[in-house]
Design brief:
- With about 1000 residues, this protein is mainly β.
- Strand 29 (about 595-605) and strand 30 (about 615-625) form a beta hairpin.
- It is globular, with a radius of gyration of 33 Å.
């Protein structure tokens, strides 16, 4: 608008000022709360597009000058604002509904819902407002830092890989502590891959049941918490389409962890009176350099598309969506593809309601065939392939078949004559190779390790409403899952070439059917409110496992198992069946909206357990007192809501135990004469008393809303004790067995959780919400059933030790404390290989007896953090929105075996010379605190900047919403000073691909974990 037009409008406004003044009049009224009809003091009353405004007094009364046709906005923090067009009324009373904030939102609690303000257990909820704009391929990755008490750790952030999730610590000694996953009422299990098959765009909300009182409704599977996912449903509105997409680039920042030939030449020269060693002279003559960090962590793109349609009438609502994700990861050969769909349909007629949910998905994941350690341990002078120059340094006497274009291997570069510039046949020349492994690049690209999963999760329900307060709901659902691991090692993948070529094919198929018959009663009468459920559930699993292996291939042309020369190198098949029958009930009672009570009981009968312990019983109770509804606080402007609560309950866990572990099983055996299976041998001791691991938890807490609803606080303190643990304990040899599975042992997790959520500022143009979450948990092994002080190892080649000691965490690192380094003159070759350190170091005589032995070992730390926190902000100014989250973890340690590879801390060159005088005073680094490194970090997990176009500008194009945004993950990631590696969160899995025979008592082993990556992306949200 130019100056002339502005001036003309000003004259017109001044000319008509008197007329306007005459048309204005006083509008009066009262603003009250919709829930309890109480007045709302301090509410804002504003005439939009003007400077006119006022606030309500203590009684909720206001008065403001208006004209007919004005739009007046009524708003208050904690309530949903209203804008009303004024006609000619002089009195206007307004009722504001409470906003869906932390205290007033409806929460899914398992077999029902409840208002957050009446929850007496520990339940956290995350609504999907911005989570689907975080460019990650998994739901659980987006949840990181969103809920207190839930530690989501990027233990292996390969493309599509599941993070590790722990709710209130590790309770089991023998098995994982994954929470139960419930999707739209179907308890699908505790495998994190279920979260990988769900599209974040389809998620409406995520509730986490953390304490035993809230999770005991799931009985024998609720000990490790419950993650409940509710998908989006259709609404009563015209049909609308939504399209969400983003494209981003993932990368690993370059570090100085790995050395270069130039840097090492400088070190050798400065440490050797300016003279280069023969090895460094040969490296310089070769003149090649490979940045293995760049080659292996090559980066990649992530792309996501989701199209949905939704709508409905009063009686029938629907929503359907299609999604596709392609995540190339940051590691060489990494790739993850996901195709998924969802359908939700709800319909009702008179007293009958019907609904159906289907969530099919197909995922394909290609991962590293071998650990990336094979690359980072290689010397930087090694080329990927041989060319005309580098082949001159290959000892063709020992490797006569090597030619230009072949993959280079360190073992080729041996016995080179620096004087003649040619290899020697007598093995007396200079050698720079320090490993006999094959080419690390080839070990990845010449092999194909692929996992394909097909899943279908679904349910259908019929609901009959006998009255407005009493109904019956019958649900039939379940899930189907097929997992195929198809692994191929090619001819060029290893140093043995065709000798190591093999193919393996593993297929797992699981069919899970669940039926639930639930009666529900909800009613308010007088000052009493009651919500009760009672019902019966039945679940049935059928599983089939097939394992085939072929070897003896001579080429890569035909990769199927029948083409193997050796045929099937190994094959096995098994089938299992499991049944679970349950009876459950829960009653939630409220008196005068002040005194709250919840009691629940569940009985689970499982085919997994012995006849004497076939059923488990899981009671729980919780109390709440809404202090803010007492007369002495009811009129408080400072305390809007205050609730004290306490809960006590028992849950269980049958995770990890076999379907027939309580039975005496037999295995086929063969004789040495025929090699044919013609007999059977008992493989374990039967145990008719085998039962659940039990968890008992006491949890006091409070929820508060203060400063008139600006700040919401949730504080929990808990003591959760896991007992009757499933342990494989030694038994007398006279039984014919070494061990037996029994229920013994006790573990305690004790801690606190604090959630602070605030609406700092909110008006017509600007809003600012912030949250801060803090979690502290202490894990203690109380009783190890006679195995106190058990020392465990994982790898025989590098047998670092863990100790399970009562009074300490389940998993504690054990070993020696370093006092000093060995002098260079006592190392066989202190100047080579590149970036090397001595294999051994001096350690402290902790008990002061003048000698170094096993009694000088001590606990060196544990892998559990002392504090996990996050800090989030969401700001919006007109059409611009901006959000970010910082997240951190402090106190945890890892046993970082990566540094052994990076710094070549083992091998002949790193050992001591025969004349070393202090052999009895040193120990290998692998046994010391040098490899126990601080895993603390601070990360800028997410940052998002978006712009939403004006609806007025979009309506001509048939578009109702259009938003563009840019986002990033882990732009800032600060690691501890003494950490040497790429991922302080990285932990070798205790089960699954890439795992070693480890367990919770040897947790915290880091070996070749995928690096923490950064992502920068752009996205689009459009609705039409």
């Amino acid at each position: 608008m130019n100056l002339k037009v502005k001036f003309s409008l000003l004259i017109i406004l001044l000319f008509n000022a008197g007329v306007f003044a005459q048309s204005k009049y006083a509008l009066k009224g009262k603003i009250t709360s919709a829930s309890d009809k109480t007045p709302i003091p301090g509410a804002n009353v504003v005439v939009t597009n003007s400077k006119g405004g006022t606030t309500t007094d203590f009684d909720g009364v206001y008065s403001i000058s208006v004209s007919a046709g004005d739009k007046v906005q009524f708003s208050c923090i904690g309530y949903t604002s209203q804008t009303i067009t004024i006609t000619n009324q002089t009195v206007l009373n307004v009722t504001l509904a409470e906003a869906q904030n932390q205290l007033y939102q409806v929460v899914v609690i398992g077999y029902g819902t409840q208002k957050k303000k009446n929850i007496t257990g520990s339940v956290s909820k995350v609504t999907n407002k911005d989570l689907d704009q975080i460019p990650v391929s998994r739901v659980d990755d987006a949840l990181q830092g969103q809920v207190s008490g839930v530690n989501i750790q990027q233990t292996n952030p390969s493309a599509g890989a599941a993070p590790t999730i722990k709710v209130r610590g590790q309770g089991s000694i023998s098995f994982n502590a994954n929470p139960l996953i419930v999707l739209d009422g179907i308890a699908v299990g505790n495998d994190g891959d279920f979260l990988g098959s769900i599209d974040m765009n389809t998620v409406e909300s995520v509730e986490v049941l953390k304490d035993a009182s809230s999770s005991s409704i799931y009985g024998s599977r609720g000990a490790n918490g419950v993650i409940m996912i509710t998908t989006k449903k259709g609404k009563e509105e015209p049909t609308k389409f939504n399209y969400n997409t983003y494209t981003g680039y993932k990368f690993v920042p370059r570090t100085n962890i790995l050395s270069t030939p130039d840097k090492w030449a400088q070190y050798v020269s400065s440490s050797n009176n300016g003279v280069l060693t023969d090895e460094m002279k040969m490296v310089q003559a070769l003149g090649t350099y490979t940045n293995w960090e760049k080659e292996i962590y090559d980066g990649g793109y992530i792309t996501d598309h989701n199209l949905s349609v939704s709508g409905g009438t009063k009686n029938t609502k629907f929503r359907a969506s299609l999604g596709y994700t392609n995540d190339e990861g940051v590691q060489l050969t990494d790739n993850y593809k996901k195709m998924n769909a969802s359908v939700n349909l709800d319909s009702k007629a008179d007293k009958l309601e019907f609904g159906i949910m289907l969530n099919p998905s197909i995922t394909q994941q290609r991962s590293l065939a071998n650990s990336n350690l094979n690359a980072i341990r290689q010397q930087p002078w090694l080329p990927i392939r041989l060319d005309e120059h580098s082949i001159q340094f290959v000892n063709t006497y020992q490797f006569p078949n090597v030619k230009v274009g072949d993959y280079a291997e360190e073992r080729f570069f041996v016995n080179y004559d620096l004087t003649t510039g040619k290899p020697r046949a007598d093995k007396l020349g200079t050698s720079i190779g320090v490993t006999g492994d094959g080419n690390p690049y080839a070990s990845l690209v010449e092999a194909d390790y692929e996992t394909r999963q097909t899943k279908l999760i679904g349910n259908t329900y019929f609901k009959f409403n006998f009255t407005d307060h009493f109904n019956f709901k019958q649900t039939i659902g379940g899930d189907y899952r097929n997992i195929v691991n198809d692994n191929r090692t090619g001819v060029l993948a290893t140093k043995n070439y065709a000798g190591d070529v093999s193919t393996s094919y593993n297929s797992t198929t699981v069919n899970h059917v669940a039926g639930e018959s639930i009666f529900s009663y909800n009613n308010d009468f007088g000052r009493h409110s009651i919500a009760a459920v009672a019902g019966f559930t039945f679940e049935h699993w059928n599983s089939e496992f097939v394992n085939l292996r072929g070897s003896g291939y001579v080429n890569d042309y035909i990769e199927t198992i029948p083409s193997a020369n050796v045929g099937v190198g190994g094959g096995s098949m098994s089938k299992t069946e499991e049944k679970l029958v349950s009876y459950l009930t829960r009653v939630n009672y409220s008196f005068d909206d002040r005194y709250l009570l919840s009691v629940s009981f569940r009985s689970d009968g499982s085919s997994k357990f012995g006849p004497n312990k076939k059923f488990g019983y899981f009671p729980a109770a919780s109390l709440g007192w809404r202090v803010s509804n007492e007369q002495f606080l009811k009129e408080s402007n400072f305390v809007k809501d205050l609730k004290l609560r306490v809960s006590y309950g028992q849950t269980g866990s049958n995770s990890g135990i076999g379907e027939y572990a309580h039975l005496g099983l037999v295995n086929p055996i063969s004789t040495s004469l025929t090699g044919v299976s013609n007999g059977y041998n008992v493989s374990n001791i039967s145990n008719p008393d085998l039962g659940w691991e039990k968890l008992v938890e006491f949890n006091p807490g409070l929820d508060a809303s203060i400063f008139g609803g600006i700040l919401n606080i949730s504080l929990d303190y808990y003591i959760r004790t896991s007992k009757d643990l499933l342990l494989d304990l030694p038994v007398p040899g006279v039984t014919g067995f070494n061990s037996a599975l029994v229920n013994k042992g006790k573990v305690e997790n004790r801690g606190f959780e604090l959630e602070l959520r605030s609406t700092i500022l909110k008006n017509e143009n600007f809003s600012w919400n912030a949250s801060a979450l803090f979690t502290h948990n202490k894990n203690t092994l109380l009783d190890f059933a006679g195995s106190n002080g058990l020392i465990s190892v994982i790898e025989s080649k590098r047998p670092a030790e863990w100790i399970a000691l009562e009074g300490h965490p389940i998993s504690s690192f054990y070993g020696y404390v370093v006092s000093k380094e060995i002098q260079p003159q006592y190392i066989k070759n202190p100047l080579y290989p590149i970036n090397s350190q001595s294999q051994s170091v001096y350690v402290k005589d902790l008990n002061g007896d003048g000698k170094i032995d096993g009694d000088d070992r001590t606990i060196l730390g544990n892998p559990y953090p002392d504090l996990v926190w996050s800090f989030s902000n969401n700001l919006k100014y007109k059409n611009i929105d901006f959000s970010f989250m910082f997240q951190g973890s402090h106190g945890a340690k890892v046993r970082n075996i990566d540094s052994q590879y990076i710094k070549n801390e083992f091998g002949n060159n790193a050992g001591t010379v025969p004349s070393f005088p202090d052999t009895g005073l040193v120990r290998e680094r692998i046994y010391t605190n040098l490899d126990i490194q601080d895993a603390s970090y601070i990360a800028l997990r997410n940052i998002n900047l978006g712009y939403s176009f004006s609806k007025d500008n979009l309506k001509n194009f048939g578009i109702s919403r259009l938003r563009l945004y840019t986002a990033a993950q882990n732009l800032l990631y600060i690691m501890a000073k003494n950490y040497e590696g790429y991922n302080p969160e990285g932990i070798l899995p205790t089960t699954g691909a890439g795992s070693l025979p480890s367990s919770p008592i040897t947790y915290g082993y880091q070996k070749g974990a995928a690096p923490i990556y950064k992502t920068v992306s752009i996205g689009l949200n459009v609705e039409f």
